[in-house]
Specification:
By secondary structure, the chain is of the alpha+beta class. Helix content is about 25%, strand content about 25%. Strand 41 and strand 42 form a beta hairpin. Helix 1 (about 1-25) runs antiparallel to helix 19 and helix 15 (about 525-540) packs parallel to helix 17 (about 615-620).
Amino acid sequence: MARSSKSVCIVLFFLLALSFAQAAPQNRIARVIDSAQFVPLQGSEHPLAPEFDRGPVDPSMQMQFVTINFKKSAAQQKALNLLLAQQQDRASANYHKWVTPEEYADRFSISTADIDKVSAWLTSQGFTVSHVARGRTRISFSGSAAQIESVFHSQIHQYEVNGERHYANVGEISVPAALADVVLGFTGLNDFRPKPHLRRMPASPHFTDSPGNFALVPEDFATIYGVKALYDQGIDGTGQTIAVAGGSAITLSNINTFRSLAGLPVNPPTVIVVSGTPSSADADALLEAYLDVEWAGAVAKNAQILFVTTDPNDNEGPFDAVQFSVDNDLAPVISVSFGFCELQANAENNADIVQGWAQEANSQGQTIVAASGDTGAADCDGGSSATHGLAVDIPAAIPEITGVGGSEFLADLASPTTYWNSTNDSVYGSAKKYIPEEVWNDTSQEDQLSSGGGGVSTIFSLPSWQSGAGFITTGRNVPDIALNASNFHDFYLLCIGTNPQDSLPSCSNGFLDSTGQPAGVGGTSAGAPTFAGMVALLDQAIDPTGVGNVNPQLYPLAASTPAAFNDITNGNNLVPCTTGSPSCLTTGLHPGQIGYNAAAGYDQASGLGSVNADVLVTSWPGFSGAATFTVGGPGVTIATPGGTGIASITVDSLNSFSGTVSLTCTPPPSTALITCSITPSVDVTGSSAAATLTINTTAAHVALASSSAPKGTTGMGWVMASGAGLFAGVLVMGVPSRRRKSTAMFALVLFAFMVTGVACGGGSGGSSHTTSTSGGTPAAIYTIGVNAVSGSITRSITVFVTVK
């Protein structure tokens, strides 16, 4: 009997090992990481001119969050490209079958063993390893400038650019030869952070007055761009989540005021701090934060908004927030209004690194929306004249990201009363209908480059879905769409606390301050969060788990259903250029300028045009308009470990749905020491019903545990035997249904192994006493899953729980 049991154990060990081996990627670091053998990393030198160099930094300067980014093997990249195509192909078995970060790691990243090798080597060199991405795409560490210079054979210098002090590496970075085939590039070796793409309103703005200049409130936007028609169908973002990437602190009361004035439901955002302590010191970053958070939530008015922000001293700034949102699969939609010139992004292989984030996001069902830039077709320039030639913006130029350019309203200049009421209604709206547009270009009014970004990438090739008339075939064309961006005609109203225009509190008198002045902004930054809101409405109507990269569908839809877009055929994103500079025209219709004209169909100034959200969503493949329901719920804050939080989970009827909806909740891993319970079911007989979600946390305590194992077993063997079935069941049920088949096989093998583990061990029974101390639920942000089922309809949401 003993010999038979041992044979079974050997077989089970083999099966268990095999199940792990099938999931794990191959090891790619075949040699010992030898610090004596280094090779330079091509393209890793920062492209700063020597005249900006102010000499070496202090050798003791600490460099936090330096990151090694890993590249895929050729086979992995080929497999990922195939999966991304299949996930958007309705005829494929992989259509909308999104992966988790861990599944991404096992299919498209380096192995755990390789991560361990790199981590051990970094530690041996005196660095402190601080983070490994869930997708195993990167590893972050910290150390002094002297350590960086010594280990990676480069220098860190100070630079002064436009009056600002920065640091960056001089010359190419070198890496151990053993890592040359797996390292894509570094981030965090400089502090040149992406910039917000916004423009402040003029000094003397108008607000629905006789000269014909107006300001946008949420109701205006919803009327002009077809969003209101979706609200009438019950499509308002309920059950959806948008992650907004930022780099500042915000005050929630300002956002609550904005929503109250605009007639939006009470729905405060959840703030997620990636690291450090965000501040409000950078006025533009602060304005950007309020613009993005308020207006993403203005369009998808019942969606949960996550403001993912960072310490302003973090090396990558808002891009760290984008990485975090992808790495943790935080939300189906990510909005980013920060960026930098593609020519600068090519340094340190940053363009390829950011594309890697985008591809990982798309494979998880996430859509990333980005602003295309505010200096026309000269993204590398500022001031009043372009000198660097044609350029587009990263991340908007990446094919897996939707780039939003800028438009401004045109038809209402000659006939304001046709499109605007002369007074505001109770929520300050006055727009009557869609207003025909032109390309946003306020350069002549501002005496600086101020126009919607667009053009052709020099890094990324033309995607297959960009074909036909209007496209320049040398590279990826930008933008994909355009939305209102003018800070003159007409800017977006904000509530931001102190108005930087006059240092008075904004929104103290409706949307105005005490002197009658509003706070407002323009720029392509406005298009990113508002289109992100539209994508959240699309997700709600098509697939609550997300739709991934929308670009492959936007272009066919423009051909089959042109009414989904408002074609922009007037204007241009031409900006002045210095004679003799790259691409600067000397003859023709626009001498001394650089850029593109609007035209019928696609153009590099306005993309496919602006969007009619109603037609876009209801014409999207998979839209049925069938009776269904949506689920939503707010975030919860618990003041101290041991406390309890309550959330009201709403189940809303969509397209006249009625019936019983069963509800369950899933707490975070047991290490979080959080439990949850929810009303088992609700009957939706009208427009909505509500259930109560209760979250319990654990206070710190000291426990004395006593255990007694049955005779003939070890204590551990008895625990394994009694808990095996439960563990295997949880393992299977914790995986989404579309992924359970392969996981179920592993769980069964594990179940058998754990049960027979009693026979694999020996020993006699006994009892033991252990004393353990628990600190209770750690302060952090956790997620609780809520699942709602009625017949064949299943809806899921994530509730964010902040424990102080």
